[in-house]
Amino acid sequence: xxxxxxxxxxxxxxxxxxxxxxxxxxxxxxxxxxxxxxxxxxxxxxxxxxxxxxxxxxxxxxxxxxxxxxxxxxxxxxxxxxxxxxxxxxxxxxxxxxxxxxxxxxxxxxxxxxxxxxxxxxxxxxxxxxxxxxxxxxxxxxxxxxxxxxxxxxxxxxxxxxxxxxxxxxxxxxxxxxxxxxxxxxxxxxxxxxxxxxxxxxxxxxxxxxxxxxxxxxxxxxxxxxxxxxxxxxxxxxxxxxxxxxxxxxxxxxxxxxxxxxxxxxxxxxxxxxxxxxxxxxxxxxxxxxxxxxxxxxxxxxxxxxxxxxxxxxxxxxxxxxxxxxxxxxxxxxxxxxxxxxxxxxxxxxxxxxxxxxxxxxxxxxxxxxxxxxxxxxxxxxxxxxxxxxxxxxxxxxxxxxxxxxxxxxxxxxxxxxxxxxxxxxxxxxxxxxxxxxxxxxxxxxxxxxxxxxxxxxxxxxxxxxxxxxxxxxxxxxxxxxxxxxxxxxxxxxxxxxxxxxxxxxxxxxxxxxxxxxxxxxxxxxxxxxxxxxxxxxxxxxxxxxx
Length: 547
Known about the structure:
By secondary structure, the chain is an alpha/beta fold. Among the domains are: about 1-5 and about 20-65 and about 180-275, Rossmann fold, CATH 3.40.50.300; about 330-545, Rossmann fold (3-Layer(aba) Sandwich), CATH 3.40.50. It is about 40% helix and about 20% strand. It contains 18 helices and 18 strands. The protein has helices spanning about 40-45, 85-90, 95-110, 115-130, 140-150, 155, 165-180, 195-205, 220-225, 245-280, 285-305, 370-380, 425-435, 450-465, 480-490, 505-510, 530-535, 540-545; strands spanning about 1-10, 15-20, 30, 55-60, 65-70, 185, 210-215, 230-235, 240-245, 330-340, 350-355, 360-365, 385-390, 400, 470-475, 495-500, 515-520, 525. The strands form four sheets. It has a six-stranded mixed β-sheet with strand order 5-6-7-3-8-9, sandwiched between helices.
């Protein structure tokens, strides 16, 4: 990848400033930076969805680029073809085999030697394409991806237009991996993945032969995958390339920041010293005047190359307070049953019962597809159970954080999304400022925000509701590590009750979870780090055997 003189602005906001950079082929590059630094925008410039103000990004000719967006919208079309057919056609093997057969038929009928030679060359080109697509082992490769991403036979038999949003995300990822592009662009690929599936994806990408550019807030994943880190500095609007994984980048970047700060301090001292000499002798004559003139030249040169220290990026200042205390049992669930397909014999939620105590941090855990988000939607009333009862205490005030920010209106501005909050505009804007939305930021439409910025909007709205029962569905997704740590500390000291779905072990450990319920079986156990680690490592040996 070659980046030449790249600059980009959105209105008055500068995203990139005059960037020049070269990255070698087949590197595995982690793209990091705070929320709003332009990581997803960078991908959209690469793909041609956004045109820069100046400059360009170039790859080698004929390099195919595959993209996994952070949020799947229309990337998987709602077509009336089977999911399996959609996956298989990611490699044009059937089409190429047909072309090859047609060419051989032409060769058999051709009598002119020169034409035969031309047809043999054409056949050779098709054969090389088939070899690139690994036509002999393609079925095995596809089956490995299907198994690794836990795509069920039931999903494969469905038409694309019958899939849920989460299923479409999984299918989009599978098709992308199977399509074998020379360049992979991955935006938060481990979001929503259970540990077993994440382990498969990690190993798959480690062995991938092409170039990988990955945006991720999952530090362990980056440390496993990447060979370089591309840091997007929101303060300077520049990009810096570091060798090594994320941990090495943090060490080198901190050393660089410390060194440049020290150099800037020494430079300021020298500027002050030279200025004092100039002021003292500029009205003198003879040697002293010439010394002042010499120092003026040195000062002018020093000021031309003065190091400008960019201001530190501000951190979110999150507060979660309750309006009133709840009763002793904010929520009790009795014998809950639910299934989406009422004709199916299999329940997603099957005879589930539990109660949560006031002030408790209660974790809902399980692999993808076992009904964690479904359970939360039943609790908040977005879905209705087939049978069973969900009871709330008479003082229960519910606040819900949706995994994909479904409660935000993308066509409205940030400020307009707070119209149902009974506070003055000044109070709302003050709260938004604590979540790093200042000035005219509040007039931006939700649709143009990065997923990380949308997460902060959703958290800001949650913070103003005064709820004493928080229902949180993957609250750390899309957030940079610093903000993840801040919200973990905030929720740890929250005085109300929490039901949490999360795949983030560090967040779970820091939160102070007391009990957890394992789905689909509905077993409730006391929190223990060893239990969490055991669950996250479950079936790992089986994965290795399958490979």
